[in-house]
Each structure stands twice: as structure tokens, then as C-alpha cells.
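cron nightly-structures :: item 1 of 1
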Amino acid sequence: MEPIEALERIAFLLERELAPTYRVRAFRRAAEVLAALPPRERERRARTGQFTDLKGVGESTGKVITEALAGRVPGYLARLEEQAAASPVAGGQVLRAALQGDCHLHSDWSDGGSPIEAMVLAARGLGHRWAVLTDHSPRLKVARGLTAERLRAQLQEVAELNRRLAPFRLLTGIECDILPDGSLDQDEDLLDQLDVVVASAHSELRMPAPDFTRRLVAAVTNPLVDVLGHCTNRLLGGRAVRPESAFDAARVFAACAAAGTAVEINCSPHRLDPPRRLLRLARDSGVLFSIDSDAHAPGQLAWQIHGCVRAEEADIPAERVVTTWTEHQVRTWTTTRRGPAASP
């Protein structure tokens, strides 16, 4: 195993298990340092085993490098792989195998921790054929939400990545804040240029149920909105715990079904939103679904299995999950609201 590959794989597995950020960064930083070394310098250090004197390479990361260069699977990596294999997620495998993409992920343009290309390469490595970049909109300043100007600049970077990484396709998108009156936090002409718009509420989450219901209905019936993100806004653990927002779920899901707007099955272990009872209600309401990682780092893209388990438990048919569709089918749906049966 190449040492850079080993370091990046360790970072991926640590992210997936929600390890402390400093530990993930240590391995990713060591990979960057090693990649920046001139080939002759790397060969010289490989012969001598001297790596820990490099800034950004510590004892643990240096040991991984030397073990990989010696032709062995590094012990640190072997332990992480063993732990991952020892605690598999029960179920969800059939639906996970059917997934072709992910409609909700973040980069370091907003509150993600990695460059866009790193997220794309990780998604491709998981077997995806496409993904949607959905950094935050401007009102969410704590997450470095994208102004219209920054979003336009991001679109240029996405176009360049698509030229280099074809046939993988990174679709343009945004996670747009649903404002208290149900309007969207971004220029509508710009939203109309994007492939996929995920709309989510991030503030004033304790509004009275009738008001919050009107807010969500206004958003999901907006023709610019394709996916309703983490609809109850609950947080299950980690740095915070938050109860569900109160709203008339039957009315909101009926509006989604009528408008052709998908309900997100958010796979983040901190959210797992919507809860099981609402998943069944959404299923019976006839909505489409989008099984999304809500990843903020490459390793978190693997969280989709959690949503697959929950979707299978709720007997949600794969054909109603937009993330099982091809990139062409997804773009047809977001522009015409016609699903695969109507796509050429």
C-alpha cells in the first residue's frame, strides 16, 4: 500500500466514526506533506526511514509511512479496518448497492472541512456516478454561507472539475435556508441555474406548529426547490441535542407529493431525520425520497448506509429514491418534475 493512500484511508475511516477533528487532520496533513516532497527526497527518506523530522509528520503518522513503505498494511489502519468490519450496519445493503449519487454534501467553501475535489474523489471511490455540491446559503454566516458572488465563482470551479473528472458528474447545488416566511435565502435567478436545490430550516426552529407548517409548505411548493432537507431539524447527540420542530407533517408531505419535491432521508448520525414514524407517513403520502449523507468531510459520505437501513425498514421502494437514479434522470426530474419512467 502506498503511504499516502494509507494515510488518507485512515483519515476517511476516522471521519466516518466521528473521531476528533484534530486526529483526522493529523493524518490528512501528513499525506499532504508527503505528497509535496520531491521524488528524490521521498526516496532518500524511504531508505533512511526519516520522516518524523518533517513538520506535519508525528510519531503515529511517521510509523504508518514507514510500515507502508516496508510493504506492510500499517497497524493503525489494520485496527481501524477491523473495527469497521466488526460492527457492520445491519441491513440496507440492497438499497445501498442501488445508490448512484448523493444530493447533499458540503465542502470547505462553507462549513465542510475539505476541498471540493477531495469530496468528489471520495464519492467516486464509494462507487457513485454523480453527487451534488450543496454548500450553505449566505444567511448562515456561522457556516460561511455563499453569497451570490461566491456561488458564481464556485460554479466555475465545478465546471472545471467536471472537465477533468468525467465521466463522474458533480451537479451544481446549494443547501438554501428556508426563511421564516417560507422564502429562500438566495437570488432566485441564480437558484434557477443550479441542478439541485435542497431547502432546509436552520433558524427559528421553535416557531408555533401552524406557522412552521406554512413555512415548510411555502418552501416545498416553490418550483425552485427540489429536496426538503432534514425536515424536523432534530439533533440526536454530539455537541448538542435538539427536539423536533413542530409542524403538520401530513400536510407538508402532501404538499411535497403534489409538487414533486423529495423528502430527504438525512443520514448523519447526529440527525437520522425524519424519524421512523414520519418516514412511514411520508411513504404513504406518495413522496419521493433522497437518501443523503449531509457529509462535511470525505469519510462522512459513507453515512448513506444509515439512511438505506431506515428506508428499507419503512418499505420505501428504491424507484422512489432519487439517489438511485442516473444523473440524467435527476436533472430531468429537477427541471420537469418527471421521474425515470418519463425520462428518455
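cron nightly-structures :: done
The chain is about 45% helix and 10% strand.
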